[in-house]
Write a structure and sequence with these properties.
The protein is α/β, with parallel strands linked by helices. The chain is built from 11 helices and 15 strands. The structure holds flavin mononucleotide (FMN). Flavin mononucleotide binds next to β4, β7, β13 and α10.
């Protein structure tokens, strides 16, 4: 079925296809039949359930930030079997993002390239959208960023305002200082900024907070800021965002960040290095090129308590979370584990 949709959607420009998909998912969300427990996409099995940082996750496969920027399709994503959804990136004020076209497919490499630049409707509208669904049956992460017109020296205010503004909504906060699409944003990936950010944010919320890092950091840099984040109040690390290493695909444009299969090795390599230091000190979430149960399990065995994906949803379709969860159950069975948490970090 998805192959038919995909053929039609792939005839359209990538961002237009995305907007159409969001429109239909929003529409479907209004159907009571799409109730979480009424369709077979959601894999309910005790072996996949974990309690992490005080949050109950029914399965470990989440939709990563950027797909549901405005918190409009949380219900549909849960129906498709995702164990959690990270909405955003949300900025204090709505903004239109960078100039179009700004989303491209690299079909042979099952990858995407985007330079969207935090296009979102802004915190006020998105708060209303979230209030309509929260509390929800699966955890919701709130991914926050700064507005493009805010200079670096005031960036921290945008992040802290967002933490405070969403204090009563969502289950965790994700600090995004790793997008390649907002000028100079990645400069915030330094110890001083990260330690001040988390030290001040933890005064504003009781929710677990995560730092989302770039795959283009050196392992030393990534470990340094990850340790700093945890020391200053973060509960864990999300690795990684998209890459601006344009050698990973054959026909890259020199703009934005690349995701999907082309990012897989790079993302996993950095994740592994970070996990060696952070495992046991904070929670690890792995994202970047995950498109199968085998790949998800590999990340889990290297220390990830949870995994996320975005690009595989576009290439493999709305069954992907269910398929990964079913494959994970087989892999757990093979290894004789009673619960996914027993596999976390086993290959470190
Ligand atoms: C079109 C697109 C938009 C994205 N927007 C965001 C975003 O707003 N915030 C963010 O933290 N990550 C964003 N990401 C990055 C994803 O959350 C994820 O980290 C990255 O795509 C790697 O995962 P994947 O290979 O499974 O897609 C975006 C990715 C894509 C493809």
């Amino acid at each position: 079925m998805y192959n038919i949709f995909k053929k039609l959607l792939f005839k359209l420009e990538a961002e237009t296809a995305h907007n159409i998909a969001i429109f239909f998912m929003k529409f479907l969300s209004e159907f009571p039949k799409l109730n979480l427990h009424s369709i077979d996409h959601f894999v309910l099995n005790k072996k996949l359930q974990q309690n992490i940082n005080g949050i109950k996750f029914i399965n470990p496969v989440g939709m990563s930030a950027g797909f549901d920027k405005n918190a409009e399709v949380v219900k549909a994503l849960a129906s498709f079997g995702f164990g959690f959804t990270e909405v955003g990136t949300i900025t204090p004020h709505g903004q239109s993002g960078n100039s179009k076209p700004r989303m491209f497919r690299h079909i042979d490499e099952r990858s995407l390239q985007n330079s969207l630049g935090f296009n979102n409707r802004g915190s006020r509208v998105i708060k209303k959208n979230l209030q309509n669904v929260y509390p929800f049956s699966t955890p919701i992460g709130i991914n926050v960023g700064k507005n493009a017109n805010v200079p670096g020296e005031f960036a921290i205010d945008d992040y802290l305002n967002m933490v405070e503004y969403f204090a009563n909504l969502g289950d965790y906060i994700s600090m995004n200082i790793s997008s390649p699409n907002t000028k100079n944003l990645r400069d915030l990936q330094n110890s001083d900024f990260v330690s001040e950010l988390f030290a001040r944010a933890k005064e504003l919320t009781k929710k677990p907070m995560f730092l989302k890092i770039s795959p283009d950091l050196s392992p030393d840099e990534a470990i340094k800021i990850s340790l700093k984040a945890i020391e200053s109040g973060a509960s864990g690390i999300i690795a990684t965002n998209t890459t601006n290493d344009y050698n990973v695909v054959s026909n890259a444009m020199h703009l934005g960040g690349i995701s999907g299969i082309a990012l897989k090795e790079k993302s996993f390599t950095l994740f592994k290095e970070v996990a060696k230091e952070i495992y046991g000190k904070g929670t690890l979430i792995s994202v970047g090129g995950i498109d199968s149960g085998e790949e998800a399990y590999k990340r889990i065995k290297h220390g990830a308590s949870l995994v996320q994906l975005y690009t595989a949803f576009i290439y493999k379709g709305y069954h992907v979370a269910r398929d990964i969860n079913l494959e994970l159950l087989d892999l757990l069975e093979k290894d004789g584990y009673e619960n996914i948490s027993e596999a976390v970090g086993k290959d470190l």
